[in-house]
Amino acid sequence: MENHNLQEWLLDQKESVFSWVDKNQHLFFLTDKSCAEYYEEVLFRTRRTECLREKALTYLMRSFDLHDLQNIQYSSLNNSKFNIDYRFLEKNAIYVLYKGKGHNLIDEGRILSNSCFKKLIVHDYPRSVLLDRNFLYSITHFCFYFSYFNEQTSHFRRMVFNEIPKIRVKQILVLGMYISLIKRDIDVLLELLVSSVLLDCMNDLDFHLQQLIILYLEKSYVQAGYINPILGTSGLQSTPNMSINAQLDFKDIYHSSLILKILLNVL
Q: What residue ranges do the domains of the chain occupy?
């Protein structure tokens, strides 16, 4: 393996990843779930027309039935295993982007105080909770939705780093990445990489970790522009022209591939 920077390796794949998503757009629209995830990816794009942004938000508002979201009880934020209802945070982020900042339904300071980072760093939760895949997802989803799909990233960083030292946040993300590599969980790994960009930590990843991530991604990446999670957990080798069957395989590869595109969007 040729040694190079993780960001450089990712950007080398950008054209093929973007092309693959565009060519297979019709497959994302086959189910409500993949269609909603496609439109959430649109929100992360730094280069998109206002018309496309509006189309994405209109679809998501209708899909999640959010027009009456202000009538939902605020207490719903405290009903989940980790004290924050991340699905509600997701809905609130969509609602705010659609309606405007004045329509925020959450107390951001209170959410940050109950966040996964606060629990791990300030309240000394055992690091073993990072072995729980759902807890790692609570970290990534907090970053996705609290940054309002990358539209309020500067505000997100200020809020987090005013409360928690950046070096401690990076340590949590790095530990999560090593765990994901050991478990060969490419979905979580990619989401943690997105989170590291949103929190301005990716350039601080050490060289050894970057090389391990590149090695794993190279095993999972198909040159046609998508991620095949099965390749990363087997001895199979990808080929430039590996094809997919819309009925059998797209559902298995689209999510990781979409997260890879989100990662490329935010770099």
A: 6-266
